[in-house]
Structure formats: C-alpha cells, structure tokens
Design goal:
Keywords: Membrane, Transmembrane, Transmembrane helix. By secondary structure, this protein is mainly α. It is about 65% helix and about 0% strand. Strands 1-2 form a two-stranded antiparallel sheet.
C-alpha cells in the first residue's frame, strides 16, 4: 500500500473543493455537449481561457511559495503527463520551422496541447484543496452521467440533438439500423466513454468509496451498460472486455468474487433493458431500416434461438412489450432502479469463501447465458460477422504507414492525414481521420512524438499501478480503443483521461491498492470515516488525505514545479511556462476571432461579406477554408494571388491547387493552369468531380481561344485536357480491376468527362483541317 506523510497545508474550507470540482464537471459536461470538442473551432475560446487561467495561476506568489521546495515521493502524475505534454507541444512548434503539411493544423495542435497542459496544471493545483479526492470523483461521474443519460434521452425521443442517433440501412455498420451516438455524434466514441466509466463505477463499488461516489455508481451502472450495447461498437466492447479482465486481475483475490457478481448483475439487467428499448422511441420508429416491416426491423425481431422461441414464456412477454417511447422510459428507469438495489445488496453482502465461490460458479454463467438470450438475434450477427469495416481500416493503416515514411523521425506537423491522405490512398475510400490516435501522432510528430505519447501513457499507468490499480481498467479501455478509432481527436477524451488519472492519484491511502472489502464493513457508509460517509473526506485529519502533503505530493500529484533543481530554476521554469501559456492564449483568441468573422460572413452578403472574409484572412492567414471562401467572391487576378499565398501555409493542399488551376485557366494562363491541375490530381487521386471539372475548364478555355482566332493555343489547351483525361481513364481502369475496392468516394469515369474529351477531340480535328 502507498503510504502518505502527514502534513497539512491544504485549504481549510471543504466547500472550495466542491466549488472547483463542480465547475470542472460543468466544463466537462459542456465539452461533451459541444460534440466532445472534436471540431477545433468549438474549442478555440475555451483553450484560450484555460491557458490564460493557468498562466495567471503560475505567476501568483502563493503558487511560487507553495512549490519552493520539493518533497521526494513516487512518480507523480505531473512528471509523466506534463513533461509529455510539453514535449509534444515542442515537437509541433518545431515543425513550424520546416514545411509542415498544414500550418493551420499545426497551430491547432499546439493550442490543443497547451490547453491540455493548462487543464492539468489547474487540476493539480485544485488537488491541494481539502476533500478534493471524493468530490472530484463525484464530479467526474456527474459529467459522465450528463453525457450518458443525455444520449439515452435522445434515443427515447426526449432530447433532440443533431445525429444523436446514427441511422443506416447498411448491415456492415449496424445490426438494427440505428446506433446511439450521443452528443459526440459518433457511436464508437460514446461506447469507449461508456465502457471506461462503467468499469470505473464497478471499481468504486468494489473498493467501498465515499457515499456519493458509490451512490452515483449504483445509479449509473446499468444505464452505462445499456448505452454501451446501444452503440453497437465492437471496438468499444473489445476494449471494455480487456479492461474488465485487467480489473479482475489487479483488483486482488479477496475482491474478485464481488467484481464478477457486480458486473454479471449489471450486464444482465442491461441486456434486459436493451431488449425492451432497442426499437422504442422516436429514434427508431421513423422511416427506414427500422420501420415496422422493414428489413432491419424483421432482422431484429428475434429474441431467442428458433428452437427455444416457440414456447418461451419470456419470449412471448417481451414480444408483447409496447414499442413506444414511454414504455422505453419505464424500462430504463425500472432497470436502473433494480440495478441500483441489486448492486447495493451485493456490496453489503458478506461473501465467505464457500458462499462466494458458489455464487461465482452459478451467477455469472447464468447471467451470461440470459444476456446472450436477451440480445436480439441481429445483434449476435453484429458480434460475430460483418468485419468489412475492420478490413477497410487496415487500408487506412497501410496508407498511413506509407505516408509516415515521408518524415519518419519528426513528422510533418498537425493535420497530416487530413491534408495528405488523398494523395497516398491506395483505394478510393472516404475518411478524413486515420482511425488510430497513435498512427495520427506518428504522422504528425514522427517516431519521436509516438515515443513521447507512449512514455506518457506508461507513466500514467505506472502511477495508477502504485496509487490505485482499480483505475487501470478504465484508463486502459480508453488507451486501447484509441488505437483503433478517432478518440484522441476529441478534446473531451484527454480531459476525461487526465481527470481519471488525477482521481486515481488523489485516492485516499485507504483506497490505494488496499481495496477495502465492502462485505467487511467498508461497503457501508456508517463503517467509513466520518468525513467519507458523506463522500467528502477531511484531508486535514490524518494520512488518508490526498491533499495532506504539500502541493498534493502525498497523493502522487506533485505540482509542475516539483522537479529536481534549485528553487530559482523552478521559478524560471514556471515563468517560461506561464509566458508560453499566455502566448497560446493570445493565439487562441486570434483563431477564435477568425472563426467568428467567418461565421458572420456566412450570414452577410455583398461587400459586407467580402470585408468580413478579408478580416478573417488577416486574423488567420493559415486557414485555407477562409481563403477559398473569399476566392469565390473576388476577381480572377486577386483570386490567383490570394490562393497562391495560401500555398505558403499548406503547400500540398489539393483544394488550393484545384482552385488555382481553374483560376489560371480563366485568366488564359495555360502553363500555370496545367501545372496546378496536375498537382491537384496528384494530391487528390480519386477526386472524380474535380477531375471532371478540370477537364471542362480547359475545354472552355480552348473554345474561347479558338473563337478568338488562336487555333494553335486552342490545340495546346485541348491536348492538355486530353492528357488529363487519359490519366483519369487509366486510374478508372485500375480501380475497376481491383477486387472489392473500398469506394466510399464513388470514384468512376464520369459521362461528363467522356463528353468533354469528345469535344476536345472534335476541336483537334477541326483545327487540323484548318
């Protein structure tokens, strides 16, 4: 067990911890509601605010005085996490000295990682507050409840949010025709979050935490498991299963029985609730695959295997269950209440060796069998078949590794995949995300950045291994799932991951690895210390406090100043960090200003719109999308200069090259037009629409030249168009020769392109006769 020295320099008012933690929980809930902070434009202002707050905190005399001396201890979260954040930020900044694939993407990553560091600095500072550990645990759970229960409300039709339910008729993407995506608008991300927090709630119930954390865990366990099933995310299921197995291994032999029983009971009720709500509510009764009589509805109608379905009473009862939203709400509430009651009984049960062994041998297998029977037959197919999406992702990974060869050591800055994947893709798939956070880091920052990220993840796991092994399971779930999906592109992912790590590091000494047995008194709030009975322990009254040592170091949360070296060096480091964060904050406000100007321009018209877009370009000249918006509204001469200037910030931008080629063609500059269009075709191999448009632009130029009496120039332009057409047709033959190509971009030789090529040939014949 990790022992903590007894010092008390924490803030003496517990309400301070409550206020700070609830404020942080509101921020996390808002981050989840705003699409998980996936879109950078939604995060600029909050990133700037976080950086400004952290910079101000680092410059205060009180912070300097508290961190003037270092105390020895175990590996604190700040040593691994903050050092890793600083290293990754430095690598992104270093790429600006070269030619990054996207200056805009690199700036966004610098700002994001600066904000993550600021968040962690503020979180570590708050860890000194009295009663931080249980209050932070409750706050994190509340933010998770907001995201998960909000998703359920959307499924049942109580809440309207864009794409809160993903509907599809593609059996490769969904067994029942709909997947719960939540505020993240992406079912796999919601599944990863629900799975990780579900494991954490089981660990809280097993280890006998404070009253409020246990209450929130009891209430949330079954709904979280239900949401995990409704996402139909196989990757999240596998990651959660791996996390569950790790939790079973590290939780300790005396507590494995309770872990098995709690998880079995939760999943059984979640399976029952799923069977009752998977086709209820407004989300599932509209037109499409799940409409009554539709293919998806018929496929999901089975409950038990056919041999058992004919005479099963349970089958007949469930088939009579109404499919309305109100019935679904009743089912969810009943399952949650039954789950909470059952979990409370299992917590309080005294499991002797013989009784516990008997229950483990009987209850989990029985619950697993019932769960398998309760899940619709279509979901069994989702679990056991249709792995075409996995094969498609292997294409992503293969192309990403090929792209990484261009800059294997330090990468090419932020946004590499989004900017360059169209130039290297071996199949015409659609996907602006590489679907692996680790591969994305390799592309952006090279092997150096991937090593930093790996070390940072390992340091967090090592800290949790020493401090609170029960939290290894949810953290591992998040880290594993990010290897096969886009989780790391969500700001919410990092806020949650660092929040879980801080909760583990700040666990009171009685909860750190020495997981109490609820059956022997720890499961009852009356048996806990007076402060913990309410969920708010008193850090100032013993060694059981995470904030009992200076700067939170007793809990394994040392402030960033707690590193080896002189006091002057630490102050200098804090000053440099504050200056960096202040600069990042100013940069965030500038990017946000450009974002607001572009939004205002979208609502304006005429000269006012042009003026707003000019101001947006001046505020953020690296943003290609603003340039292309403005380019459509200005004369060709100015447009060419505007687009060419954008290549300084995104030299391999296919959109800029397409626009440039068309603009030069409009200006009658064939050499530049042809060069730009060939560059665009190289950077966007499978862009059927743009290739067709390029041919049409050149053909129109040739017709204008012929009409003006320049037959020779017209012939050269027509020959250039036919050369582009030839490359287009050759690529089309290559794609048609592929076996089962992933053609999400619907690449094909268009009829318009063939007609344009015919007109160019006709022009050549006419000019030859002349």
């Amino acid at each position: 067990m990790f022992h903590q020295p007894q010092h008390n320099v924490s803030v003496s008012r517990p309400w301070a911890a409550v206020s700070v933690c609830l404020l942080a929980a509101c921020f996390l809930g808002y981050a989840a509601y705003r699409s998980g902070m996936f879109f950078d434009g939604l995060f600029y202002r909050w990133e700037a605010l976080l950086c400004a707050l952290a910079a101000a905190r680092l410059l205060t005399k009180r912070w300097m005085r508290q961190n003037a001396s270092r105390r020895p201890g175990t590996m604190p979260i700040s040593h691994g996490a903050i050092a890793g954040i600083c290293a990754l930020t430095f690598l992104y900044a270093l790429s600006l000295l070269g030619r990054p694939a996207s200056v805009q993407g690199t700036l966004e990553q610098i700002l994001r990682w600066s904000a993550y560091g600021a968040y962690l600095v503020l979180l570590l500072d708050a860890a000194r507050l009295r009663g931080f550990a249980p209050v932070w645990t409750s706050a994190l759970l509340l933010s998770g409840h907001f995201a998960v229960f909000g998703a359920l409300a959307g499924w049942l039709g109580w809440l309207h949010f864009p794409d809160i339910v993903m509907r599809t008729g593609d059996s490769e993407l969904s067994a029942t025709g709909a997947r719960l995506a939540g505020f993240f608008q992406y079912a796999n991300m919601l599944g990863a979050v629900a799975g990780a927090l579900l494991l954490w709630q089981w660990s809280l119930l097993v280890q006998g935490s404070g009253f409020w954390p246990r209450l929130l865990a009891r209430v949330g366990a079954v709904p979280y498991a239900l949401v995990l099933l409704l996402t139909e995310s196989r990757g999240a299921w596998i990651a959660a299963a791996a996390g569950w197995l790790l939790g079973l291994l590290v939780i300790g032999a005396p507590h494995r029985r309770r872990w098995l029983l709690l998880s079995a009971w939760t999943m059984l009720l979640a399976g029952l609730a799923y069977r009752l709500v998977y086709r209820t509510g407004a989300a599932l009764t509209g037109e499409g695959a799940l409409a009554p009589g539709g293919a998806g509805y018929r496929a999901a109608a089975g409950l038990l295997p056919e041999a058992a379905a004919e005479s099963g009473l349970l089958h007949r009862v469930l088939e009579l269950w109404p499919g309305s939203a109100a019935a679904g709400v009743v089912a969810v509430i009943a399952a949650a209440v039954a789950g909470a009651a059952g979990l409370r009984l299992l917590e309080a049960a005294r499991l002797t060796r013989r009784r516990g062994a008997l229950l483990v041998w009987l209850v989990p297998p029985l619950c697993a069998a019932l769960l398998a029977a309760l899940l619709p037959a279509a979901l069994h197919g989702r679990i056991g078949a249709h792995y075409e999406t996995g094969a498609a992702r292997m294409l992503f990974y293969r192309d990403a590794l090929a792209l990484a060869q261009q800059a294997p050591l330090l990468g090419q800055g932020g946004g590499v995949w989004r900017t360059l994947f169209q130039s290297v893709q071996s199949r015409p798939y659609a996907g602006s995300e590489v679907h692996s956070g680790y591969l994305d880091t390799l592309l952006n920052t090279g092997a150096a950045g991937l090593a930093v990220l790996t070390v940072m993840a390992c340091s967090l796991c090592l800290m949790l291994w020493k401090q609170n092994r029960a939290l290894l399971a949810p953290v591992l779930t998040l880290l594993l799932h990010a290897a096969v999906d886009i989780d790391m592109s969500y700001g919410y992912y990092w806020l949650l991951l660092f929040g879980l790590a801080a909760a583990g590091a700040a666990a009171p000494a009685g909860e750190a690895n020495g997981i109490a047995d609820p059956g022997e008194g720890a499961g009852s709030s009356a048996a806990a210390p007076a402060g913990e009975a309410s969920g708010i322990a008193d850090p100032g009254e013993g060694a059981g406090s995470s904030a009992a040592a200076p700067g939170g170091e007793a809990s394994g949360i040392a402030s960033p100043g707690g590193v080896a070296g002189s006091s002057a060096a630490r102050r200098a480091a804090a000053l440099l960090a504050a200056l960096w964060l202040a600069a990042a904050s100013l940069g965030g406000w500038q990017l946000d200003r450009a974002q607001r100007l572009r939004e205002a321009a979208a609502a304006a018209s005429g000269s006012a719109r042009i003026a707003l877009l000019r101001a947006a370009v001046a505020a953020n000249p690296a943003w290609t999308r603003i340039r292309t918006d403005l380019a459509q509204l200005v004369p060709p001469g100015e447009r060419a200069s505007l687009l060419a200037a954008g290549l300084r910030y995104e030299p391999q931008s296919a959109p800029l090259q397409w626009e440039l080629g068309e603009t030069y063609a409009e200006l009658g500059d064939l050499p530049r037009a042809e060069a730009a269009l060939r560059a665009a075709a190289r950077l966007d191999r499978f862009g059927s629409a743009k290739r067709t448009e390029a041919l049409q632009v050149l053909e129109r130029l040739a017709q204008r030249q012929l009409a003006a009496g320049s037959a020779g120039a017209a012939r050269q332009t027509a020959l250039a168009a036919l050369s582009l057409y030839s490359a287009y047709a050759e690529l089309d033959r290559e794609v048609r020769g592929m076996s089962h190509p992933a053609n999400g971009r619907r690449f094909a030789l268009t009829a318009e392109a063939e007609q344009t090529a015919s007109r160019c040939l006709e022009l050549l014949r006419r000019t030859e006769k002349g």
